[in-house]
Amino acid sequence: MRLGIDIGGTKTAVAAVSTDGSVIAQRSAPSGRGPLEVTRVAALLARETVALAGIPADAVGACMPGMVDPDTGVVRHAVNLDVDELDLAGGLRHALDLPVSVDNDVKAAALGAALHVGSSGGVNTLVYLNLGTGLAAAVVRDGRVLRGPDGAVGEIGHMPVGGLAPCQCGQIGCLETLASGSGVARLWRPESSQSADPFVAAAEGNPQAAKAAAMLADGVAQALQMLAVTCGPDRVVIGGGVSRAQGLGEAIKVAIEAREASSDFVASMHLASRFEILPPDLPIASLGASLLPTR
């Protein structure tokens, strides 16, 4: 049994995973703030998960946002967790007395997505597209996460695609300003009496929510097109908090159809048949973290 630890900006989740990829036990709690608390909460949940599973763990894989060096296990600039620098691998290794591997949360989730899809259907190249506050992707080819010399493979959220909206990366008009939670919030913020889902609010007649929902769907369609021509995935798996919006999948297909209607080239890529949205209760990042290679 291996442990997969997913340290998120608000919640830390731990899954005990068997050799066949099934989840034996899970625990979660609000994430700690700052290097010491981030590690302490993760280690505490790991111990609780092992106790719940009733089986000793052989190794630990952990993931979190920020700039992660998988060779050293050091995480930098995880600003949502008040972490400037953290030796996550070293801290968890000391606390749990087990081998520990560490990676970026989106890259780990991509491994979990690959496990979810499986090897059937000729899926040699898979892309995991994470729709959260921001937008990021990771590419898995033949079971391995692609990184590039600077680890930036998949960071399509910071590709400028036009528009005047400023991006947190310092550029203007990045794809993330369209296809993300922050992009939706720029156009529409729900009132206390409204659903937080822009598609639900749009169906209830809110014009700003409708505008935000249409922008989100078209932004994701644009992301799928970009991934198709740059990475050539057999499958794109969409996850993240924003992916739980009701009707998102159908709205993306409508946006793709509009693009196909004006371009035979886009139509030739059959984008609508190449993506799926993950079930909301699947602990994809924890699963992927448990698959990280032991160091």
Quick description:
Helix content is 35%, strand content 23%. It has helices at residues 35-53, 88-96, 105-117, 181-187, 198-203, 207-230, 248-261, 264-267, 284-290; strands spanning 2-7, 11-17, 23-30, 59-64, 67-69, 74-78, 83-87, 100-104, 125-131, 135-141, 144-145, 235-239, 275-277.
What strand order characterises the main sheet?
Answer: 3-2-1-4-8
Number of strands: 13
> What is the string of helix and strand elements?
EEEHEEEEHEHEEEHHHEHHEH
Describe the sheet with the most strands: 5 strands, mixed
Which labels suit this protein?
single chain, 295 residues, alpha/beta, five-stranded mixed beta sheet, 9 helices, 13 strands
3D structure, described in words:
This protein is α/β, with parallel strands linked by helices and 295 residues long. Helix content is 35%, strand content 23%. The chain contains nine helices and 13 strands. The chain has helices at 35-53, 88-96, 105-117, 181-187, 198-203, 207-230, 248-261, 264-267, 284-290; strands at 2-7, 11-17, 23-30, 59-64, 67-69, 74-78, 83-87, 100-104, 125-131, 135-141, 144-145, 235-239, 275-277. Helix 3 (105-117) packs across helix 9, helix 4 (181-187) runs antiparallel to helix 6 (207-230) and helix 6 packs across helix 7. The longest helix is centred in the C-terminal third of the chain and has 24 residues, at 207-230. The model has no long low-confidence stretch (mean pLDDT 93).
